[in-house]
Design brief:
Elements: E1 6-12, H1 17-23, E2 32-33, E3 36-37, H2 38-47, E4 52-59, E5 77-81, H3 86-101, E6 107-110, H4 120-132, E7 137-142, E8 147-150, E9 156-160, E10 166-175, H5 176-185, H6 192-198, E11 204-207, H7 219-233, E12 236-248, E13 252-255, E14 258-261, E15 265-266, H8 274-286, H9 292-295, H10 308-321, E16 324-334, H11 344-355, E17 362-367, H12 373-376, E18 380-391
Parallel strand pairs: 1-4, 1-6, 4-5, 7-11, 16-17
Antiparallel strand pairs: 2-3, 6-10, 7-10, 8-9, 12-15, 12-18, 13-14, 16-18
């Protein structure tokens, strides 16, 4: 599939009066679910997509909330004043984009700020449909329930055939100039696709997941939170790491970033911290990023004598850049000496800070091999580590 480079326009100037009466004073796009604001969840799939050239968020002129969010400082995010209606906000975003791209006519996706559950495969399917048709495309789901038409007293008048009926979702994607002209020519439309239809275009419907929920009522917040939590729990990755170093001359060893006095040192290209080397490999393995030797080879003189905490910091950054956060780690030191127990709590606290997690997500154990093998003979130290990562939505 050819790459589809696009811009995102997100209308976010609404106040959600129906929901404010039950969910508090905050507009629904600023309510918190699964640890983040709804609008942050809605923006996340696009900021994670390298095909997205930029994001234009259209907020109310007196909005006190958006600029305080971390996402507002993202280099690809532009906040612009929206309008009284969705149509006005989308047009404001399109006009802002038109001044930036000048004569270009890029693809533009429009996505609701209150749809926090967009799936990456659905976004990919929409982009594929844009390649196939010049009239644009939108995500949608087929209607599966029986439909009834009622009178003013809510009595059934007729059963309506659902044949050929779909429920329109977002994002919806079109060429900038065509969409801008269509919205300006059709003031009464409810979404971008209907404006394009009114101008004679026939956008393609792209089947999407039914959990691409639009938050309208307060109960939708809990439903969206469950969807996001279930998704988080089903996208976890486990990695395993192991490292071994032989004893040599010296008067200390490094374990978990702690300098521990000892009668010998460890032979290594770096500082020989077996716990951190095993942990780096576990983190890289869970994220399918290879191993510590690929990223920090001992053939590179710049890593000679390097502190393993430096390598761990770089590893954590690589894992975050790949879209993962650390759920927990479990480490085991294997060897007869030195004893780890006096340093255990300090090491756990140090690792928790480096991994950007709480200390209760870091476990550290030590064991001997009952004097068996090279470890039992006191010839060196070994460590094993297991890491659990969660894919960020």
């Amino acid at each position: 599939m050819s790459a589809v480079h696009y811009w995102l326009v997100m209308p976010a100037a609404g106040v959600g009066r129906r929901m404010q009466s039950t969910a508090g004073a905050l507009p629904k796009q600023y309510q918190t679910i699964a640890g983040r604001r709804v609008i942050e969840h809605a923006l996340a799939p696009f900021l994670a997509d390298q095909d997205c050239q930029g994001v234009i968020v259209c907020v109310a002129a007196d909005d006190p909330h958006f600029q305080s969010l971390p996402v507002a400082a993202h280099p690809r995010v532009h906040g612009v004043p929206g309008g009284a209606e969705r149509r006005d906000s989308v047009l404001a975003g399109l006009h802002f984009l038109a001044t930036r791209v000048m004569a270009e006519d890029p693809w533009v996706l429009v996505h609701d700020a209150v749809r926090p559950c967009l799936r990456a495969p659905d976004l990919a399917a929409l982009k594929a449909a844009l390649v196939a048709g010049a009239d644009g495309a939108l995500l949608a789901t087929r209607l599966t329930d029986t439909l009834k038409r009622a009178d003013a007293d809510e009595r059934v008048q007729a059963t309506v055939s659902r044949e050929g009926l779909w429920r329109a979702l977002t994002p919806q994607g079109f060429r900038l100039r065509s969409l801008m002209a269509a919205i300006e020519a059709a003031p009464g439309v409810t979404d971008e696709a209907s404006a394009m239809e009114a101008c004679g275009h026939a956008p393609r419907l792209v089947m999407a997941s039914g959990d691409n929920l639009k938050i309208t009522e307060s109960g939708d917040l809990a439903l969206a939170a469950r969807i996001l939590e279930d998704r988080r729990m089903t996208d976890q990755r486990i990695g395993f790491g192991v490292d071994v170093h032989a004893f040599g001359a010296g008067d200390h060893v490094w374990l978990g970033g702690e300098r521990i006095p000892f009668e010998r040192g460890l032979i290594a290209h770096s500082d020989g911290d077996v716990l951190l080397h095993a942990l780096c490999d576990a983190l890289l393995g869970a994220a399918a990023l290879g191993d510590i030797g690929q990223h920090f080879p001992d053939s590179d003189a710049s890593y000679r004598g390097v502190a393993s905490m430096t390598l761990l910091g770089a590893t954590v950054a690589k894992v975050a850049a790949a879209g993962y956060r650390i759920a927990n780690v479990d480490l085991t030191l294997m060897g007869e000496q030195p004893r780890l127990s006096p340093y255990r709590d300090r090491i756990r606290a140090r690792l928790a800070a480096a991994l950007q997690v709480s200390a209760d997500r870091v476990n550290l154990k030590a064991t001997t091999t009952e004097r068996l093998g090279f470890l039992g003979r006191g010839e060196g130290l070994a460590a094993q580590a297991v890491a659990l990562l969660e894919k960020l939505s």
